Amino acid sequence: MQKLISRITSRKANIGVIGLGYVGLPLVLRFAEEGFKTVGFDVDSNKIKSINSGKSYIKHIPDKKLKTLSKNGRIRGTDNFKKLKDMDVVIICVPTPLNEMREPDLKYVEQTGLAVSENMRNGQLICLESTTYPGTTEEVLLPLFEKKGYIAGRDIYVVYSPEREDPGNPDFTTRTIPKVVGGVTSNCRKIGQLLYSQVIDKVVTVSSTRAAEMTKLLENIYRCVNIALVNELKILADRMGIDIWEVIEASSTKPFGFSAFYPGPGLGGHCIPIDPYYLSWKARAYDFTTRFIEVAGEINTSMPYYVVDKIIEALDKKKKCLRGARILILGIAYKKDIDDDRESPSLKLIEILQKRGALLQYNDPFIPKLKKYRKYNFNLKSISLNRNLLKKTDLVLIATDHSSYDYDWLAEHANLIVDTRNAVQMKKKYSNKVFKA
Fold first, then answer.
1. Can you point out the beta strands (E) in 192-291?
2. Are strands 179-183 and 157-160 parallel, antiparallel or unpaired?
3. Low-confidence ranges of the chain (pLDDT < 70)
4. How far apart are CA 426 and CA 316, in angstroms?
5. What is the structure's pLDDT at 71?
6. What local confidence, expressed as pLDDT, does residue 352 receive?
7. DSSP assignment string, 378-414
C-alpha cells in the first residue's frame, strides 16, 4: 500500500484506462496532463491508431492536446490487455447499455473484469467508472478478483467512482467536476481518494461502492423525472393553447425553489435514457417498484410519437399527408453542438417516420454519416443546407438546436417547420408555417 501511495504522489504510477470513449479519453488526457504515463486500452483498433498518431475522434477534444501528450510519451493506446500487468492503476470506463427487455447488460463490464483478473498483480488499484446499479462492483467485479486469490484492501484496492462527463459543456471540465469515490474497504477508499485528488480539484468520499453507484443513478434519475414532468406539461400546455417555453422562462425568474428543465423530442445520451432502468431492475430484488422512474420512462419514450403527431398536424394544415412527404431533419446529435448521437431521439424519429412512408433527409454539421447502431441501421448521409433544398422539402423538423443553424433564414425559406427545441424566434410572419412541438 505504501509503495502504491508513493508511486501515485510522485506521479510515477502507470495509469491504464480501459474504454476510450467520451469518458475514457478525457480521463487519459487528464492524468497525462498531470505528468502520469497513461495507457489507453480498447478493442477498437481505429481509436488506438488515432491516439497513437495524435488525432482526436471526439469533437470537443482538440488534436493539438492529444498530439502533444502522445509525442512526449505521456499517452499511448493499445489493444494488448496483457500490458495491464504493467499498470499501477486500472480504470474501467466501458459501456453499460440495456438489453431488449430494458434490463442491465453488463457484458462489457464482465468481459473487462475477466481481462483484468487474468492480468493483474498485487498492489494495483482497480476502479470502475461505468454507470451501473448499486452492488455491481462488489457482486460482479470483486468475485472475479477473489477467484484469483486477491483480497481487496490487502492485496489490491477496489473502488467505484462514477463518471460525470458532460460532452460539449464549456463551463465544466474533467478537472473541475467534483469526483465521488467509494471503496470496498477503508484502505481502498483512501487509495482511490488519493489517486483522483492528483488530477481532480475536489474529491468527495462516500462510505461504500454501493453508495457511490447510487449517487450516479440519483443524479440522472433526478434529471429524467424532471424532464418527464416538463414534457408532460408541454403536451398539456399545447392542448390549452399555452406556450410552455414562455411559462418556463417566467418561472425561472423565481430566485429560489425552482430549477428550469426543458422539454424536447425525447431523451438522448448514454445516461438519462438508460441509467434509471438500472435502479428499477435492481429494486425488484428488494420487492420494490420505482413508480416515478417507470412513469417518467413512459412519458419520455412517448415524446417522439408526440412529435410525429405534430408533424402530421402541421402537414394536414397544408393539405399534405405524411406518406410521401419530403421531410428534412435538422440535428442527429442528442444535444446541441456535439458529435454524440448515442440514444438520440432523432434516430427513433427517423424509424417512425420511415415506417409511415415519409421521405427523409437530414443535416447535422457534426455527424456526416449515420453509422450502424445497436437498434438502427439507416443508410443516410448529411445533406447540405441551401434554398433549393428547402424549396423542395415539405417540412423541416428541428430535432437538435445546433448553434450553427441560422433559424431566421430557415424560417424565411422553409415551407413548413416543426420546432421541438424552441429554436425559432416566433414572428407574426412565420405564424402560419412554424409549429412548436
1. 203-206
2. antiparallel
3. none
4. 21
5. 83
6. 97
7. ---BB----HHHHHH-SEEEE-S--TTS-HHHHHHH-
The grid coordinates listed for 397 are: 423538423
Of 207, 237, 253, the position where a domain reaches its end is: 207
**Model confidence over 354-393: pLDDT tens digits?**
999 999 999 999 999 999 888 899 989 999 999 999 999 9
Distance CA 97, CA 19 (A): 14
Q: What pLDDT, on the 0 to 100 scale, is given for residue 326?
A: 98
Phi, psi (degrees; rounded to nearest 5) at 179: -110, 125
Contact indicator for 196, 205 with CB cutoff of 8 Å: no
Query: What span, in angstroms and rounded, lies between the C-alpha atoms of 277 and 298?
Result: 12
Question: Could you list the active site residues?
Answer: 271
User: Over the Cα atoms of the chain, what is R_g?
Assistant: 24
Query: CA dihedral defined by 370, 372, 373, 378, rounded to 10 degrees?
Result: 60
Report the DSSP beta bridge partners of residue 38: 15, 75
> Distance between CA 387 and CA 328 in Å, rounded?
13
Domain that holds residue 118: 2-207
C-alpha 233/C-alpha 226 separation (Å) is: 11
Q: What is the dihedral angle through the alpha carbons of 273, 333, 161, 68, rounded to the nearest 10 degrees?
A: 170
- CA torsion 312-366-44-49 (nearest 10°) is 160
Number of domains making up the chain: 2
Q: What is the DSSP string of 267-317?
A: --SSSTTTHHHHHHHHHGGGT---HHHHHHHHHHHHHHHHHHHHHHHHHHH
Q: Where are the beta strands (DSSP E) in 149-202?
A: 157-160, 179-183
Whether 152 is in a domain gets the answer: yes
Tens-place pLDDT, residues 23-77: 999 999 999 999 999 999 999 999 999 999 999 998 888 898 899 898 888 999 9
Strand partners, 40: 17, 77
Which of 155, 172, 207 is the endpoint of a domain?
207
How many C-beta atoms lie closer than 10 Å to residue 239's C-beta?
A: 8
Q: How far apart are CA 417 and CA 396, in angstroms?
A: 5
Please check whether residues 167 and 305 belong to one and the same domain.
no
Residue 43 falls within a domain, yes or no?
A: yes
195 with 256, same domain: the answer is: no
217 located within any domain = no
**Residue 400: how many CA atoms within 13 Å on its side-chain side?**
29
